[in-house]
Specification:
globular, mainly alpha, two-stranded antiparallel ribbon
């Protein structure tokens, strides 16, 4: 019983982090109607910035400066790229995000170098035992993962409330539905894109800090963002709550599969289970659990 609970808790904690990654994809899509292939590069660039600034100052100040840099980056993306692609096809915006991704990866390597860096947030590395009075032997949990999960969960909850309840969130949904219609009723498209890319930069920064603290900051960090792909497929590309539920499903599913199916299938299930699950959803429910069914009338 204790081992099963440890596995479930580990899966839920991983799922919250996956939901945070997926949230970056969902935010951009809800504001522009295009999938942001630059999200992984944004995570890498933000983590590199945080790691190099932390060498010279305490991490809270480094975090504020890194977030300020991500806001400036969002302003440059809107001013130099997105502003010139208003009312263009989704393919044009998609190719623009690909170009932004390669540019950020090259810029990060040029400015910060290509070594492996460390982010020290002062989180405890030693595991702790909880519920020892209720469960024989207790539950062994990573305190670092627990604190990181709580921080990620708070950010996810705040962003969910922001996009579901605020006027800006409703304006962003209008922009995603129809750029021209949103402009016609006075919604400033450039300001909306600046807001959502800045928020996506914040998400990328927090994601990069968490994973950089766990694994170190290296260029393979951008590949972690690929874990967000099956999450948004499961939850729906247009749904913030879907990103949360999809992340929890993926986290729980891959942990349980690794523990209980790994011995029979040879291990390594965590690396591909989420994509197999996403493939099943694409065949049975392409729009995801909370996504909107798209109907084209002719």
């Amino acid at each position: 019983m204790g081992f099963l609970l440890e596995t479930l808790i580990a899966g839920l904690m991983a799922g919250v982090l996956y939901a945070l990654i997926a949230l970056g994809f969902v935010l951009i899509y809800k504001a522009s109607g295009v999938f942001n292939f630059a999200q992984g590069a944004m995570v890498l660039f933000a983590a590199l910035t945080m790691a190099r600034l932390q060498v010279h100052m305490p991490w809270p100040l480094a975090f504020l400066l890194a977030f300020g840099l991500m806001v400036v980056l969002a302003w440059l993306i809107e001013r130099l790229v997105l502003r010139h692609l208003v009312n263009q096809s989704g393919v044009a915006l998609l190719m623009a995000t690909l170009g932004i991704a390669y540019f950020l990866e090259g810029l990060g390597q040029l400015v910060w170098g290509d070594d492996i860096y460390r982010i020290d947030l002062g989180l405890p590395k030693q595991p702790t035992v909880v519920l020892s009075g209720l469960i024989p032997g207790g539950l062994l949990l990573s305190r670092e993962d627990l604190i990181a999960t709580l921080a990620a969960a708070m950010l996810v909850a705040l962003l969910t409330l922001f996009f579901q309840k605020s006027d800006v969130g409703r304006a962003l949904r209008a922009v995603a539905d129809d750029h021209q219609a949103a402009q016609s009723i006075g919604i400033p498209l450039s300001r909306m894109w600046l807001i959502v890319w800045s928020i996506a930069g914040l998400v990328a920064l927090v994601t990069g800090m968490i994973w950089g603290s766990k694994l170190g900051v290296q260029f393979s960090l951008s590949l972690i963002a690929l874990k967000g792909l099956p999450v948004v497929i499961l939850g729906g590309l247009t749904s913030v709550p879907g990103a949360i539920v999809g992340g929890l499903i993926v986290g729980l599913g891959e942990k349980l599969a690794e523990v209980y199916l790994g011995p029979m299938l040879g291990g390594g299930i965590e690396s591909w289970f989420a994509y197999l699950l996403a493939l099943g959803f694409l065949l049975l429910r392409p729009q995801g659990l909370f996504g909107e069914r798209i109907i084209d009338r002719v």
